[in-house]
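To make the argument concrete, we let one protein speak, a sequence paired with a row of structure tokens, as a model reads it:
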Amino acid sequence: MIKALIFDVFGTCVDWRSSVAREVAAVLPGVDALAFATAWRAEYDPAMARIRDGARGYVPLDDLHLENLDTVARAFGVRVPDRWALNAAWERLDPWPDVLEGLVALQAQAIIAPCSNGSIALMTRLARYAGLPWDCILGADLARDYKPRPEVYLASCAALRLAPAEVMMVAAHNDDLAAARAAGLATGFVPRPEEHGPGQERDLRAESDWDIVAADFRDLARRFAALCGG
């Protein structure tokens, strides 16, 4: 029996691309806001990789985002008037249209929580902004490491005092689910074909036999109920 669902957040629950671009446009009106947001996000994984590989100690994602903002601003040849204010754009991301209804339906069946690379502070403020009804905040800060390292998934399970097999990881990214499955968790896939905008080529469909493959979060709630015999 699955007793908890933990969720990837950026891209799976919220539309980071359009939301960050909106904030960039307000602060840097002369810049291609979508291109800037995309470039900022592109620095995300390389920054975490240095920590996962042991080349750098754990640094919360808030600080990595700020460092990455400076990198992208230099590349675009612009000066950001208030770096900290724009960096908080990652706390003001809009949920996909199906997310809130789906999460409420899922919360009636199991514990729900983020398992994000975002810090506890970031995830808390984002939840307040977007209305995400989490039971608690889990993820990278607990493990002091970044997905897809197994410690991140296992730390979230341990915090709930549940075995990995009692927890389902939900994500729009096949590599996230592959890592969760390798750590012993159940898996649920929900595609977000617009996460990266027009021309997205990856994660358009499930690439393995995940325990649940759903069209959206509403469908996920229905399928989860059927899986659990509800």
About this structure: The chain has two domains: 4-15+92-227, 17-90. The radius of gyration is 17 Å.
